[in-house]
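Minutes, structural biology subgroup

Action item carried over from last meeting: produce the structure token record for Band 7 domain-containing protein (Xanthomarina gelatinilytica). EB confirmed the sequence was re-checked against the source entry. Recorded below for completeness.
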Amino acid sequence: MEKLPKVALPTIIIAIVLIIVLAKSAITIGSGEAGVLYKTFGGGVVTDEAPLGEGFHIVAPWNKVFVYEVRQQEILEKMNVLSSNGLDIKLEASVWFQPDYANLGKLHQEKSEMYKERVLLPAIRSAARSVVGRYTPEQLYSSKRDAIQQEIFEETKKIVEDQYIQLNEVLVRDVTLPPTIKDAIERKLKQEQESLEYEFRLVTAAKEAEKQIIEAQGKADANRILSASLTDKILQDKGIEATIKLSESTNSKVIVIGSGDSGMPIILGNQ
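Output recorded by EB:
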């Protein structure tokens, strides 16, 4: 077996070391992610430069890269809160958020990778308790759901806006009341609905009666005007006009002039 040249062995060792260094220095940032660079001998977390974007990167082997998901994420939180009259309400909310990309280094330095547990969740719980405490169970159950959702979003956003977290939306998915309170509210709402329907029927009936009265009054007025306008002279003139037209007809007939009680013609004939 031939011996390796003296130069070959160091070359192989150097090549192996380079491969190890490259393997430890190479990092790939996935889709929807970004990297925060930590320089061991250069001041720690890099906060004054943009995060490492998607793709392949080479960093010094003694440095570290912390990878964050920077696309929109969702947290589903279930919590117990109190209404304005002290009743226990179960609230389920969905929070849409993402880290502030431009300040990802500061987020890592100040909040760490646990920023959701340390900042976001306490903020949403605090905002939900504050907002729900302003409303009664009936308002929470029916008319104020959208308003509550918007108020929780606004209050949570105020808390996290300087914490390098971008809050996109808060959705109230469910509000669960104590069964006895829920049943009482449903009965009340049903009674109110029935009352509104009854009032509507009364108003409709009153309008229909008013319509019939107006129509009857109109007919009575028309008849009175017509009766007042039909004098004996007008009736006689109309009778004469009718007699003339009948006399011009070829149908056989007998016309008796002035034989009626009022002096109007009486017409006799086969047609």
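Discussion: The mean pLDDT is 79.
Next step: EB to file the record with the rest of the batch.
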